[in-house]
Amino acid sequence: MPEENLREIKVMANLLGANDVQAExxxxxxxxxxxxxxNLIGSPGAGKTSLLEKTLTxxxxxxxxxxxxxxxxxxxxxERIAALNIPVLQINxxxxxxxxxxxxxxxxxxxxxxxxxxxxxxxxxxLVCPADFDLGEDFKAVVLSIAEGDDKPEKYPVxxxxxxxxxxxxxxxxxxxxxxxxxxxxxxxxxxxxxxxFEVSCRTGQGLAEWTAWLAGEIRAVKETG
Length: 226
Ligand SMILES: Nc1nc2c(ncn2[C@@H]2O[C@H](COP(=O)(O)OP(=O)(O)O)[C@@H](O)[C@H]2O)c(=O)[nH]1
Ligand SMILES: [Mg+2]
What we know:
Elements: H1 3-32, E1 36-42, H2 48-59, E2 65-71, H3 76-82, E3 88-92, H4 101-107, E4 118-122, E5 139-145, H5 152-155, H6 157-162, E6 163-169, H7 181-191, E7 196-199, H8 208-225
Parallel strand pairs: 1-4, 1-5, 2-3, 2-4, 5-6, 6-7
Bound molecules: guanosine-5'-diphosphate and magnesium ion (MG).
């Protein structure tokens, strides 16, 4: 292998190593506060913010909820969450295509942790880079719009391997697309047999109650047992 390539791999390994160290600090923080942390990942337009809006509303008042919004530019998503009266902070990454654990760590002191049971972090719209970066979350949740095509899990397997749960959104669009939903799901389970899959529509509300109930169970498990 040419020396240049070797150097590139080493730099990447160091980058991930430093990220993992900081991610452990974040993880300990979430754990100590008995707050579930979810890293929400998906392509631009998959419906991450829509799912957040529906989920936070669906969770009701049982839990203390908060959001970190990651985006290259703008605070549009954070404004959508703030409109629900939920504590939210924006991280603009500029040219970076993913959040890293240091960016998240920097803004943690700004939240009222003693009131929080769940922190959902919407990552920068991208199915690739965010899959590799641990933010200290309890788990990654991948959001895939079914309209993106049934070949996407096979093309972007890392995120499906690393996520605990996959939310297939825009199920209402099935009649208007060529997508083979059974094929999409089979690909996902072939990559990660234990992954939990929900089929939802943020537009019609289909499947959202099941997804929200599952998430509530995860929040309770952390809140009650730590
Ligand atoms: N038909 C349909 N459109 C949706 C659904 N969920 C989100 N959208 C639309 O998809 C677009 C992108 O949604 P957004 O939540 O901003 O996606 P994000 O970029 O992943 O955060 C918006 O126009 C939403 O109204 C859905 O379940 N069905
Ligand atoms: Mg968004």
